[in-house]
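HUMAN: Can I see a protein plus its fold?

ASSISTANT:
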Amino acid sequence: MKTRALDNMRGFSFSGCFIKGNFRAAEVAPPAEMEEMFEKYTEGGTHMTAEQLRRFLSEVHGHGSVSLAEAEQVIEQVLQRWHHIAKFTRKNLTFDDFHHYLFSPDLNPPIGNQVLVSDT
């Protein structure tokens, strides 16, 4: 008989007729450059404010001029996605939130391939 049980929310235990073991998903660490950017734009802090995110999006991420309201909206979307309670208590991003935002295809989609066709 096969059984599964969550093990520390990071993997699962599996036992059966022939196999017994503990399997975990490999965790991928964020790139060092991302940590450096976070430290730079938070000025060594542990949370990124809407103003700091606005600067990052404008200067590094190539979004041109981003308003403070747009940065606040990004933070709100991230917090709604990953922290259902925190969205009521804080208005800034942790490093993990920042990492999730940058690698979220829904909140931060990749630049699409677009070909400009000229009729001339």
Summary: Residues 32-102 form a domain with the Recoverin; domain 1 fold (CATH 1.10.238). Confidence is low (pLDDT under 50) at residues 1-14. Strands lie at 3-7, 11-15, 20-24. The two ends are 70 Å apart (CA to CA).
